[in-house]
């Protein structure tokens, strides 16, 4: 029986291995992690991450051919294929701080693999890593290998949170990069055989190691660039009376452009886009390509601009101050159908409003109070280090309350900011919300989920990203 071990039981390791176990009953899959609490949760009824459909898959396979364990060394030493899906956060200090990927966790995993291995292994990069990481990993493994053969493959993951199970079951493509030697090709074939259990052959792409590593960074940069492009247009739409939804619909109808990923928003979030683009920028700089680096940097700059612009709109509309005003924040996760808050635009918007002394009442159906308080007090980039290394600071932001109901959040509020596109925000009883708010009552829709005309009929003053401005907002320039 082929044995697979995955180091890192996070958003990628957990769901990816669960699907491999589901689709390959003859393979034994062990997911290991140094975080005891994470593994305990994977072995309980309350999984550590919220992902539609994940519970069912885990329940079907756990204890049969899917195991979660903290016994990292045992499972690594027994495995034929070792996936590494540990954190690759942005470096917070030293060379490349604020841009380069911190490979501390990857390196420690690689050294451990070399230490405990007693048989030949295929080591698979599942984490998103800088180009040429495989070379560094190869050096660590071969210098410590005691004669054991390791083949390194790059198999980047393209799943998006909230749709991870569907993405894994029906991927656009699976990409496998390896050495162009007979041994390298044999290793590629071994991994192909795993995916071929459910992924059509033509969607399993093979490449050289460096192309596979770079393709992952490039895909995220292209996706984020589309969002920054449409968000840049949203500012121009507001200035000219155009409607960004009509513009992106018309643009997306061009089959060369396509309709997906053109939704204007308060900004993109999530653990990957910013981190991976910063990493790409750093790699370009290191390779003497400052113009290319500058090009990609703009994607992040526009994203920051979009978040600032939103805060400025809120403050400017409410007579240039939100001091001591209650602002309801609906949605804190970085997108719907996840409880993940890593790099969510809600953090920057909330911090911006708190900077102007607002009182915030936050509601998100999947994010708990301690997570929100931690996010609002944590230093930049600390969030992406393993959970047990993160500060469990008891400090709370006093002006923030977290409630479990949208009506409670909006009661007596002066304004409502919609920051995540949860479906339930489309169908709220906005008449009830309006009746219980201070007047004038404002809605700032950072995700274009509400019907602005209907809300205006109720009496709200409405700001929708990239749409023709409410007469109230027209003479209120939102400049910092
Ligand atoms: N989250 C996504 O949607 C997504 C999608 C594609 C790729 N990625 C990439 O995949 C990688 C993992 O992302 P994630 O979101 O799953 O992160 P995560 O923080 O959810 O999980 C990483 C896990 O690795 C564990 N870990 C760290 N060092 C370890 C070690 N030495 N031994 C054992 N366990 C260790 C941590 O405790 C943590 O539980 C990153 O490189 C990320 O960029 C993420
Ligand atoms: O038209 C759009 C699409 C997305 N977003 C925002 O962009 C962010 C990222 O969304 P999404 O890409 O759907 O989720 P992620 O889980 O971050 O997935 C991205 O990052 C992963 C990690 O690398 C990759 O594997 C995925 O392919 C890539 O889509 C979220 O804040 C979304 O709200 C928009 O603002 N407008």
UniProtKB/TrEMBL annotation:
Molecular function per GO: NAD binding; UDP-glucose 6-dehydrogenase activity
Short name of one Pfam family: UDPG_MGDP_dh
Family: Belongs to the UDP-glucose/GDP-mannose dehydrogenase family.
Entry's Gene Ontology BP terms: glycosaminoglycan biosynthetic process; UDP-glucuronate biosynthetic process
The keyword GTP-binding appears for this protein: no
Organism superkingdom: Eukaryota
EC number: 1.1.1.22
CC annotations in GO: nucleus
Protein residues bound to NAD(+): 8-13, 33, 38, 86-90, 127-128, 161, 272-275, 342
Keyword Cytoplasm: no
Keywords of the record: NAD, Oxidoreductase
InterPro entries in alphabetical order: 6-PGluconate_DH-like_C_sf, NAD(P)-bd_dom_sf, UDP-Glc/GDP-Man, UDP-Glc/GDP-Man_DH_C, UDP-Glc/GDP-Man_DH_C_sf, UDP-Glc/GDP-Man_DH_dimer, UDP-Glc/GDP-Man_DH_N, UDPglc_DH_euk
Enzyme class: oxidoreductase
Pathway: Nucleotide-sugar biosynthesis; UDP-alpha-D-glucuronate biosynthesis; UDP-alpha-D-glucuronate from UDP-alpha-D-glucose: step 1/1
Record-given protein name: UDP-glucose 6-dehydrogenase
PANTHER family: UDP-GLUCOSE 6-DEHYDROGENASE 2, UDP-GLUCOSE DEHYDROGENASE/UDP-MANNAC DEHYDROGENASE
Domain UDP-glucose/GDP-mannose dehydrogenase C-terminal: 328-452
Active site residues per record: 272
């Amino acid at each position: 029986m082929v044995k697979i071990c995955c180091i890192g039981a996070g958003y990628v390791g957990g769901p990816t291995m669960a699907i491999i176990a589901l689709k390959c009953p003859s393979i034994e899959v062990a997911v290991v992690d140094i975080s005891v609490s994470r593994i305990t949760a994977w072995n309980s009824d309350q999984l550590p991450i919220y992902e539609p459909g994940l519970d069912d898959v885990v329940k079907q396979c756990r204890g049969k051919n899917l195991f979660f364990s903290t016994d990292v060394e045992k499972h690594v030493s027994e495995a034929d294929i070792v996936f590494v899906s540990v954190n690759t956060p942005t470096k917070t200090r030293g060379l490349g701080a604020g841009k380069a990927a911190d490979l501390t966790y990857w390196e420690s995993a690689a050294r451990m693999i070399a230490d405990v291995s007693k048989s030949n292994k295929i080591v698979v990069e599942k984490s998103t890593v800088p180009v040429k990481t495989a070379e560094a990993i190869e050096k660590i493994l071969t210098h410590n290998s005691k004669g054991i053969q390791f083949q390194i493959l790059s198999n980047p993951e393209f799943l998006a949170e909230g749709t991870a199970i569907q993405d894994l079951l029906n991927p656009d493509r699976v990409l496998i990069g390896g050495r162009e030697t007979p041994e390298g090709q044999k290793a590629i074939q071994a991994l192909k055989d795993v995916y071929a259990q459910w992924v059509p052959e033509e969607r399993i792409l093979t490449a050289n190691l460096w192309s596979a590593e770079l393709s992952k960074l490039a895909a995220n940069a292209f996706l984020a660039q589309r969002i920054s492009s449409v968000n840049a247009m949203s500012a121009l739409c507001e200035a000219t009376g155009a409607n960004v939804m009509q513009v992106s619909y018309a643009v997306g109808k061009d089959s060369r452009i396509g309709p997906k990923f053109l939704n204007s928003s308060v900004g993109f979030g999530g653990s990957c886009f910013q981190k991976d683009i910063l990493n790409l920028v750093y790699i370009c700089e290191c390779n003497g390509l400052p113009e290319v680096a500058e090009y990609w940097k703009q994607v992040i700059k526009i994203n920051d601009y979009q978040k600032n612009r939103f805060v400025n709109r809120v403050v400017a509309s409410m007579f240039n101050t939100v001091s001591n005003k209650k602002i309801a924040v609906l949605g804190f996760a970085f997108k719907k159908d996840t409880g993940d808050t890593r790099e969510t635009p809600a953090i920057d918007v909330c911090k911006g409003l708190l900077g102007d002394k607002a009182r915030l009442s936050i509601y998100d159906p999947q994010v708990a109070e301690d997570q929100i308080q931690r996010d609002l007090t944590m230093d930049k980039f600390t969030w992406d280090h393993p959970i047990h290394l993160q500060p469990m600071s008891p400090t709370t932001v006093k002006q923030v309350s977290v409630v479990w109901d949208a009506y409670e959040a909006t009661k007596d509020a002066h304004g409502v900011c919609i920051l995540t596109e949860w479906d339930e925000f489309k169908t709220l009883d906005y008449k009830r919300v309006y009746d219980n708010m201070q007047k004038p009552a404002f809605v700032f829709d950072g995700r274009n989920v509400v019907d602005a005309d209907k809300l205006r009929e109720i009496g709200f003053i409405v700001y929708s990203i990239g749409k023709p401005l409410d007469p109230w907002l027209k003479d209120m320039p939102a400049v910092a």
